[in-house]
Amino acid sequence: MRLKNYLILLLIISLTSCLSVRKHNEQQKVCISPEKQKEDVDFAYSKLQETHPQLYWYISKENLDHKFDSLKQTINEPLTPLQFYFKLQPVIAEIREGHLSLRIPSKRITKKEIKTLEGKKGMFSRFEYYVKDDRLFIIENKDSIQNIKPGTEILTIDQIPVSDYIKRYRKLISSDGFNTTFQPYYLKDVFFNYYVAEKGYEDRATLETVYNGEKKTYKLTRESKSETDLKQDKENKKRTQEKKVNDYIAFNNSYNRNFKFLDKDSTIAYIKVKSFSSDYSSRFYKETFKKIKNAKSSYLIIDVRNNYGGSLEEINNLYSYLSPEPYTLIKPSQVISKTSPLKTNYFRKSNPFQFILKTLAYPAFFFAQTFSTYKKDGKFYYKSRSDKQSKPKENVFKGKVFVLINGGSFSASSIITSKLKNDKRVVLVGEETGGANDGTVAGFYSYQTLQNSKIDLPIGVLLVQPNIIFTNTKKGVIPDVSITETMQDIIDKKDPEMEWIMKEIEKEKSTK
Fold it and tell me: What range(s) does the Tail specific protease domain occupy (predicted)?
């Protein structure tokens, strides 16, 4: 009897999911009246004022009021949710909070469509890209598709100039504050997310390109995967112990964390972290720093270039291996009110089965969140383990540390590098980080849905700031040694930042 009930429940969940996808896709085709759009604009702004703890950090209230009012004056015709998104998101971006962004409305796909796509190769995802001004270049052709050479510029996609897309998409993206390095890194990664949201999952595309002054046209198709490809996909999904500890990413067949020694006598250790995902991170750092200590390494290079951030817990743990003295990573995280932690849409995206489980667990959630805030000097703060004093780990590294950063170093990457710089623990090499030096608004989110367009607006609830003397520059973390790699460096697999560090280490060794 229990099995029968379970199967009935699964059937209900499956049918509910299909109906939800159909309803969502029909909603994307319906035009919203100007009056309803203006209601959504007012709703979005009111929720930002109600929830965001540092809304006017980079823009005055008067200026932001004016931008929302000006936007409403331009709304004079019915628009689809996607068209409305392209009007409202640029105003949200003017707030200059990199974590704050509307979720782009797009067509959802069914489980059957997902399975079909899993059996085919990506069309645009098989290339790596580089954005320069309003231009898009291919810098890596993973499968040697039609022998398109790295350095090839894509001029048009299906006869529409790429520059038109970039100009449209750039208005949707902001970094923290007045940083200028973040946008090109993020835009190259999300360009085709926006494109697919507009165009859908198409099976073919025509690219007009230019390479060394020679123009060529390529017709891309979404090819079916071979048996070998499918077997490899299956193999990649297997979670070995190594894959867990190094946080394997099946999508691009790489590891999120890497560790190695760069020389024969193991004096130079190197750690690369692509994202602070927290998965198995404690074990990774414990094992890694034990190896570094046993090898008696004198130098450590930590690479957080193109790391968009992630877990505060992970960076706090990493910091405990870099600070020989007790430390506090972040200042107490400010929230706008005592009830802010309860505005996180606890039941969001729950299927019927999950809803039942969450309902049973809700009293515990409510109790924990209610007592997670405290008031001090007229302001409210959220309790966090990262704002308490931490002790150094047993295998703390006491040698010289270099950290590689660039415009793709965002959020948690900026928090830890800002703290390291303030404490004079490292030499930062590269370019200004994409995240702000003095903190950001993120932590966890209050997920709001605009009432008429049904567009999601996740709003960060916590003001997270490193425990430092603030620079008040409203920009990113500035490197001690400024080096920016070019597109040709990437194509030639040169690393000028790493080359500078290695030369500096050799120079130091020769003087000892």
Answer: 238-484
